Structures are given as C-alpha cells and as structure tokens.
Amino acid sequence: MQRSGWCVWVTGLPGSGKSTVAQALLEKLKARGIHAQIVSSDMLRRVVTPTPKYTEEERDMVYGALVFVAKLLTQNGVNVVIDATGNRRRYRDQARREIPRFMEAYLRCPLEVCIQRETGRKETFYAPTKIYRTAFIGRSATVPGVGVPYEEPLQPEVTVDSEKLNPDQCAQKILEAIIKAFQL
Fold first, then answer.
1. pLDDT tens digits for range 66-120
2. Contact 51, 164 (CB under 8 A)
3. Within a domain: residue 1?
4. Which has the closest alpha carbon to 171: 24, 40, 38, 34?
5. Do residues 18 and 127 make contact, with C-beta atoms less than 8 angstroms apart?
6. What global pTM score does this model have?
7. Which residues 6+ apart lie within 8 Å of 183 measured at CB?
8. How far apart are CA 87 and CA 143, in angstroms?
9. Distance CA 120, CA 113 (A)
C-alpha cells in the first residue's frame, strides 16, 4: 500500500524569501533522496486567474485550488512544498484540516526588510514585481502586510528568522522539522 505524502506550507510576507527557501529546501530533500513537488500560488494563479485582481474572492479561489492540488498530490504519495503567502490563517488552516501529514513553516521577516528585498530582487519565481511600490503609490490596495493583513501563524511547526538566516540556513531548519514531524 502506498503511503501518503506530506505537505509543508512555507508562509510569510511577500519578500520574506519563501520561493528561494522553498527551492533550497527542494535541493536539500533531493540530496537525501526525498522527492517533493513545489506548488506555488504565483504559478497556480497564472492558470486559475491569468489577469489577477487580488480580491478576497479571487484569493479564496486561488488558495482553495492550491489546497486541493496539494491534497490530491499527497493522497497519491507525492510530498508537497507549498510556496505561498497565504495571508489569511483560514487558508493555511484549511490545508491543515484537509491534509493529514501537514506542517506550517513560517518565515518571520520585518516588513521593511521584505520591502527592501522585493524592490531589488532579480529572480521572481512567477511572483508579480514591484508589489510594495504599487501599494505605496495607491495602485494596489491588496498587498499583504500593507493594504490587507498578513495573519501570522499562531502555532507553526517551525519558525525561521529569514532576516538573520540565509536561505540555505532557513531551508536546513525546515528540513530538520520535516524529518522530525514526518519521521523520515
């Protein structure tokens, strides 16, 4: 009988390093012979809502689809790393309810640092660019942490300080939590 996969949701503000850390985590897992698939909200959004408005209704749809895809993959033995802000706790809580082997990895990073990183990043991993700039000039009222809240996890299985730790160190801490939580 095939064992179900596990899922770790890497969450944090835009610019906290989610995509970079998820990629580093994938490499660390691969080096240990553990296959996993990244499921990115930004990548999924391109299919589900090709011209995104980032409304609450649209976010509900995108995050519902994200959880659905992750659930299907884990049910079929695929390990999943979700790379998504998931600004509302209810999105992450839905995943926790629907995916039996689930954990949250919170990248804690001050908003000011996230803004600085997002402004200067070269690799976007499908994320929209200049989101904080558009928020500050009034062209977007839905940027998490600025126009809409980012609800920090209340009890994540692992919290890493992505201001103080580099992406490789963040990924290592998450890997250690995965190994412990899922007894790998």
1. 999 999 999 999 999 999 999 999 999 999 999 999 999 999 999 999 999 887 6
2. no
3. no
4. 24
5. no
6. 0.93
7. none
8. 9
9. 11
**Nearest of 160, 123, 127 to residue 12 by alpha carbon:** 160
Q: Which amino acid is located at 30 in the chain?
A: K
Q: What is the largest CA-CA distance in the chain?
A: 55
CATH of the domain at 31: 3.40.50.300
Number of compact structural domains in the chain: 1
Interatomic CA distance for residues 181 and 23, integer angstroms: 20
**Each residue of 129-178: pLDDT tens digit?**
677 887 777 777 788 888 899 999 999 999 999 999 999 999 999 999 99
In a domain, 82, yes or no: yes
Task: Give the residue among 48, 153, 171, 43 at the shortest CA–CA distance from 103.
Answer: 153
Domain hosting 90: range is 7-182
Length of the chain: 184
Phi, psi (rounded to 5 degrees) for 173: -65, -40
Amino acid at 8: V
